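PROTEIN DESIGN WORKSHEET
SECTION A - STRUCTURE
LENGTH: 121
TOKENS:
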């Protein structure tokens, strides 16, 4: 089992920055793919950014050039640096950890409780 705790959310003005952290416990996440999702009121949860165990990052088009995902395996933590924030970035942000493929052919997903990000115009 992996427990994930997000932090760093809050209220920020248009154009501002926030850095989200996702601290993992219960297992080392160095072999896990990690990702950040967000969910706005009345909308589905959407992928924002992902990073492989090898450090390759991918981003949703709306955040490319503004957000950066990174990981510090020594600290068992993943980060999301968010710059040039816009009101449409307002959402609850969730951290996700996906396990490596097991011998039984399964992958397991773990989620944090989420942290609210609100961007005022």
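SECTION B - SEQUENCE
RESIDUE ASSIGNMENT:
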């Amino acid at each position: 089992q992996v427990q994930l705790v997000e932090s760093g959310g809050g209220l920020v003005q248009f154009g501002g920055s926030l850095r989200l952290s996702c601290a993992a416990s219960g297992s080392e996440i160095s072999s896990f793919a990690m990702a950040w999702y967000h969910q706005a009121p009345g909308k589905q949860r959407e992928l924002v950014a992902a990073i492989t165990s090898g450090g390759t990052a991918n981003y949703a088009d709306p955040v490319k050039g503004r957000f950066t995902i990174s990981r510090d395996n020594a600290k068992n933590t993943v980060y999301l640096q968010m710059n040039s924030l816009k009101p449409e970035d307002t959402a609850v942000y969730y951290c996700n950890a996906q396990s490596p493929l097991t011998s039984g052919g399964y992958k397991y997903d773990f989620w944090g409780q989420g942290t609210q990000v609100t961007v005022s115009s």
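SECTION C - NOTES
The longest strand covers residues 18-25.
The mean pLDDT is 96.
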